[in-house]
Specification:
Length: 364
């Protein structure tokens, strides 16, 4: 029986899927959770009350509005999408990456991005049967290697180029002129992924419309609504009307439509929280930089990339875990990330804890 099923599975499941390891999420029960770029604050009681009232009036026996009109309009307005541009919603921006893959994949077309970068670009390219080309960032400062990118685009003619600004897991914002050079030279789409826009000093949203091949992707996850699963793509109607055809009907459920629309009406609450995270980011960066042998890289996101003294990353990661703090160990993920940890900015008390525990570990 098991012989037969194994034979069947290996015959029918595509080899590139069998070769993958499933996306791994660490068990966080009971820990201070600084591993996934979540906003550490919950909603004020008054907001919860009002939300609960709306929830009570929401009927779940009906399918949601397939176009999520109210939410789409609210997003376009609050996220300052330029007039004339269309907005397309996804069940997280991960689903948007998947829709783009499904809409553009044909044999021989590839996806290109930078390494180290966001792992879902590579994973979803594989799901869609597209090769992934990763162009290394510059080792000194994780900036874009423009000549290498131009050459790779010339050679591979990618259907889609993804640039996360700020980049995950490095935290830095790419130079605007460098990004413009990539957009100008790209043969196909360039998607600027602004998942960390609430923490960054600039955006490409206002650039939409200047280039025929530019789309901007955002998510509400990092601003404090990760549990709702909502991302969106903004750009010219000509592109988005086509991508919309591969979107599953009702991809944004009733509860997400209602809750996100409600939350965005109270965006000031989230703006206050994200401003606080930016302040804490500076304080945490300064404190971590005082640890002997530690390098803290500049960040415009809600996390810090930290290089520990040589060979210490895994020991510090495990040490923090034992002490009830979960961060991300990036050692081994990419040669440029040797000895690196990624620490999400938490509440002031959580940030103090991570610093004091690392201080302790640094003494070993
Ligand atoms: C977290 C993250 C996303 C995924 O966002 P979801 O909307 O939660 O799917 C996309 N891009 C980057 C660069 C991210 O870090």
């Amino acid at each position: 029986m098991s012989d037969t099923i194994d034979t069947l599975v290996s015959h029918w499941i595509r080899p590139e899927i069998r070769a993958l390891s499933a996306y791994h999420v660490q068990d966080a029960a009971g820990s201070i959770k600084l591993d996934a770029m979540e906003n550490p604050w919950t909603w004020p009681d008054a907001l919860r009350e009002e939300w609960a009232g709306l929830l009570r009036q929401t009927d779940v026996n009906r399918y949601p509005d397939p176009a999520a009109r109210a939410l789409t309009e609210r997003l376009a307005e609050t996220m300052e999408v330029p007039g004339g541009m269309r907005v397309l919603l996804g069940n997280g921006s991960d689903e948007i990456i998947q829709m783009l893959g499904m809409a553009l994949a044909t044999p021989g077309r590839c996806v290109l991005s930078v390494d180290p970068g966001f792992v879902m670009y590579r994973m979803i390219a594989t799901f869609c049967g597209m090769p992934y080309v990763g162009v290394p960032l510059r080792a000194e400062d994780f900036s874009l290697d423009v000549p290498a990118l131009l050459q790779a685009m010339e050679e591979w003619q990618p259907a889609i180029v993804y640039l996360a600004c700020p980049n995950n897991p490095t935290g830095n914002l790419f130079d605007e002129l460098a990004v413009r050079k990539i957009i100008e030279a790209a043969p196909g789409l360039v998607v600027v992924d602004e998942a960390y826009a609430p923490f960054a000093s600039t955006t490409f949203m206002k650039v939409l419309g200047e280039y025929d091949n530019l789309l901007v992707m955002r998510t509400i996850s990092k601003m404090g609504l990760a549990g709702l699963r909502l991302g969106f793509l903004a750009g010219p109607t000509a592109w988005l009307d086509e991508v919309d055809k591969v979107r599953l009907p009702y991809n944004i459920n009733v509860l997400t439509q209602m809750s996100a629309e409600f939350a965005l009406r109270h965006k000031a609450v989230f703006d206050e929280q994200t401003a606080c995270i930016r302040t804490e980011r500076a304080r945490l960066a300064e404190a971590l930089a005082t640890l002997p042998g530690v390098v803290v890289f500049p960040s415009e996101a809600n996390f810090l990339l930290v290089r520990t003294p040589a060979t210490r990353a895994s020991a510090w990661f495990e040490g923090l875990k034992v002490r009830g703090i979960l961060v991300k160990n990036l050692h081994g993920a990419h040669p440029l990330l040797d000895d690196c940890l990624r620490i999400t900015v938490g509440r002031p008390g959580e940030n103090d804890r991570v610093v004091s525990e690392l201080m302790d570990l640094a003494m070993d």
